[in-house]
Amino acid sequence: MTPRTALIAEDEPLLAAHLRAELAAVWPELSIVALTTNGVQALDRTLALRPDVCFLDIRMPGLTGLEVARALAEDWPADPGAPFPLLVFVTAYDQHAVQAFELQAVDYLLKPLNPGRLQSCCQRLQQQLGRRDATHRPGEGDLLAVARQLQALLATPGAAQPEGKPAHLDYLTVQTGHTVEMVPVDDVVYFEAADKYVRVLTADREHLIRMSLRELITQMDERRFWQIHRSILVQTRCISRAVRDEQGKLSVILRQRSETLPVSRVYAHLFKGI
Fold first, then answer.
1. What is the DSSP letter of 219?
2. What are phi and psi of 176, to 5 degrees?
């Protein structure tokens, strides 16, 4: 029997220990290679260890379970010998929200854990892993399918989305020394996450604002600003064209700036036909 490995990402130690103990009871051959307590750790350890299965809590510090999954789809190596892990989301959401997960081919567990539900989940995981081994080692095509699936899940109303959004911003308040500037959002070519700040790039200037990109995105008009990478939000009218290199990677050429911006696999569907 092929050894199977898993990672558990859960910020509550008691819940993590309980899930590990329950997994040992229903799937004793499964080896837990890492226990992580926040989304950033989960992302780093998964990329390093490449487990067969990831159990991802939806609400974690740093990155949510969905954001970890999206980042994995962006950063996973396009290597036939590195199959993308099967994903199981652990959530305390009610049944109405869980239906959104059922619509996508990802599995889920509700808190508090139900032993029978966990057993059926593990059986499905074992069957999927068995089929994967019997047919082929997933490559780029399978990873793209996972990326599209995650994007659909993230766009599903009720699936870990905030209740209501702030009004769209028209101006950004930017402080430089003792001066406060009002930068029109219309002037922004793109935003880029930078540690605890966001870089604001206009045609000829750069500013820093103390805000997360995640927070900023909720205040932007999604018809005017496209997220093309987990750290980049670009104004659509400032995109000149998108090009694909010999390795199949997409990048965006801008009208008013010289830099080229990467497009991750999760957002490649925005440029259909390329």
1. T
2. -125, 105
Structural contact between residues 207 and 183, judged by C-beta atoms closer than 8 angstroms: yes
Q: Exposed (0-12), middle (13-18) or buried (19+): which is 82, by Cβ within 10 Å?
A: middle
Q: Measuring CA to CA, which residue among 109, 131, 104, 126 is closest to residue 6?
A: 126
- Number of alpha carbons in the 13 Å side-chain half-sphere of residue 98: 13
**C-alpha–C-alpha distance, residues 81 and 45, integer Å:** 18
**Phi, psi dihedrals of residue 81, rounded to the nearest 5°:** -90, 5
Give this prediction's pTM.
Answer: 0.67
| Residue 249: DSSP 8-state | -
Q: Is the peptide bond before 112 cis (omega within 30 degrees of 0)?
A: yes
Structure-block tokens of residue 213: 């990109």
Q: Summarize the chain as % helix, strand, coil (round to 5).
A: 35, 30, 35
User: 18-73, pLDDT tens digit by residue?
Assistant: 999 999 999 999 999 999 999 989 999 999 999 999 999 988 888 888 888 888 88
- Most distant CA pair in the chain: distance in Å? 66
CB atoms within 10 A of CB 85: 21
Return d(Cα 19, Cα 30) in angstroms, integer: 12
